Amino acid sequence: MGERENKKQRTRRDLADAAVGLFTEHGYDQVTMADVAALAGVSRRTAFRYFPSKEDLVMDYPIAWLQVFEESIEANQGRPLSVRIRTAGHAVAAFIQSDPVAVKQLSALAFAHPALAAKYVSSTRRWAQRLTVEIERDLDGGPEAAAHAQMLAAAVMGIIDSVCEIWATTDQPMEPLLDQGLDLLAAPLSAAAGGHS
Amino acid sequence: MGERENKKQRTRRDLADAAVGLFTEHGYDQVTMADVAALAGVSRRTAFRYFPSKEDLVMDYPIAWLQVFEESIEANQGRPLSVRIRTAGHAVAAFIQSDPVAVKQLSALAFAHPALAAKYVSSTRRWAQRLTVEIERDLDGGPEAAAHAQMLAAAVMGIIDSVCEIWATTDQPMEPLLDQGLDLLAAPLSAAAGGHS
DNA sequence: AGGGAATTGTCACTCAGTGCCAATCGTTGG
DNA sequence: CCAACGATTGGCACTGAGTGACAATTCCCT
C-alpha cells in the first residue's frame, strides 16, 4: 500500500484505458502493443509485464464479472442451485451497472473481434468447470452425473455468455434477459437440485 | 479432377497429418510451423497458404462435424426443431464413427490446449448464429424472440461442445451423451417449436 | 511443344511475446 | 538524511506467427 502499489494500479489502469481508446478509434488490429505502451507512458516491455498478452488488455472487466458470479455462487451455499445461479446473475448485473467506466463500449469491442471473443469465451471455460463441480455436488453423484453436470454447466455458461453479448451489442437491459435465459434451464436445474439438505 | 487438385488435397492431408503427429509427440508449443512444413515436404510459406494459422492445422475435422450438423438441420426443414437438432446430432455421431483417422486423438489435443480450445469454440459461434435464425423462424417472431433464440442456440451449442469434449477426453460413447444433453433443453425446444405448419 | 495460369519457394518484413541484464526507483534500517 | 536492499523498469536481442511481393516452377490446355 505504499507508493509502489499505488503506482502499479495506476499504470495498469493507464494501459487498459489507452488500449480501449486506441482500439475503439483505430481498430484492434491496427494498434500495436507499442502504441498502447507509448500512450500509457511506459515501455513496451513493461506493458507486457502488466498484461501477458494484447488480448488481456481488454479482459479485466469481463474477468471481474465472472469473479463476482463465482463469489455469489459460493456465498449462498445453502440455497437451491437454481436460486444461487439466478442470484449470482443478478449480482453481476448490479456490479456492471454500478460501474463508472464505459464497460459497454469495452464489451462490444470484445465481442466484435474474433480473437477477443475467443479469449473471453475460453476464460469462461474455467468458470464452467467451477460450476460443474457445484452442480455435481447437488446431484448426489449418480452414475453419469459427471457428464450431466458438465453439460448443464456448459448450457448455463452459454446462456450467460449470450446474455452478455446481447446486452453489449443492443440496448436491452440485462436482468430480464438473464431471467428469460435461465428459465430455459429451469426444469433440469430445479429437478436435480433442491438444495442438499 | 486434374493432377493439380489431386496434389493439393494430398498436401493438405500431409500437413494435417504431420501436425497431429508432431503435436501429440512433442506438444503444440514445442512444434513450429516450419517443423510441420518440413515433415510434410513443403515450404513454410506454402503451409501457411493451406492453413491460415497454426491452429487451423487441427481444425479440419471439428469444422467438418459442424458442417454435417448444419446440413442435417437444413435437410429436415419440415420437422419440429427439437427433432431436427437431435437428428443432426446423431448424424454427426455417425459421421465421426465412420471416420478412419484418429479423430479422437486429434480432438483430445484440441481440447487440451487453451489456444486450440478457444479457436474451436469460437468457430462454433458461427454455427450458433446459424442455429439462431433457425430457431427464430420456428418461434414466429414474438417481441423478444431474437434474444430468446440467441440464448437457446447458445445453450444448444454449449451442450454440443461439451458432448464433444467429454467424448474426446473419456471413453463414453457419443449418442447417449447427446440425448442426455439435449433432454436438458427438451422443454424450451419443444414448447416453442412444433414445426411451422 | 508451347503459351498461360496456378502453385510454390525465397526473401524480407511486422508484430506478439520472452529472457537477460543494467539502470532506476521506492522502501527500510541506521 | 543517507546508504543499502529489493522491486520495478527499460533496452536489447531473440524466436516464432503471419503476410506481401516476386521469381521460379509446375500443370493444364490447345
Please explain how this structure is put together:
- The first copy, chain A, is mostly helical and 197 residues long.
- Helix content of chain A is 76%, strand content 0%.
- Chain A has 2 domains: 3-52, Arc Repressor Mutant, subunit A (Orthogonal Bundle), CATH 1.10.10; 59-192, Orthogonal Bundle (Tetracycline Repressor, domain 2).
- Chain A is built from 10 helices and no strands.
- In chain A, helix 5 (81-97) packs antiparallel against helix 9 (174-183) and helix 8 (145-169) runs antiparallel to helix 9 (174-183).
- Chain A is elongated, with a radius of gyration of 19 Å.
- Chain A binds a DNA duplex (30 and 30 nucleotides) through helix 1 and helix 3.
List the helices and strands and how they pair.
The structure is a homodimer of 197-residue chains.
Chain A: H1 3-26, H2 33-40, H3 44-50, H4 60-75, H5 81-97, H6 103-112, H7 114-138, H8 145-169, H9 174-183, H10 186-192
The structure holds a DNA duplex (30 and 30 nucleotides).
Which descriptors would you attach to this protein?
homodimer; 197 residues; mainly alpha; Arc Repressor Mutant, subunit A; Tetracycline Repressor, domain 2; 0% strand; elongated; DNA-binding
Write down the CATH topology of the largest domain in chain A. Answer: Tetracycline Repressor, domain 2
Q: Please give the count of helices of chain A.
A: 10
Strand content of chain A: under 5%
- Structural category of chain A is mainly alpha
Order of helices and strands of chain A: HHHHHHHHHH
* Annotated CATH architecture of the largest domain in chain A: Orthogonal Bundle
Taking Cα atoms only, what radius of gyration of chain A do you get, to the nearest Å? 19 Å
Largest interface: A-B, 37 and 37 residues
Proportion of helical residues of chain A? over 70%
What's the β-strand tally of chain A? 0
| Multimerization status | homodimer
Q: Which consecutive residue ranges of chain A, at least 5 long each, have pLDDT under 50?
A: none
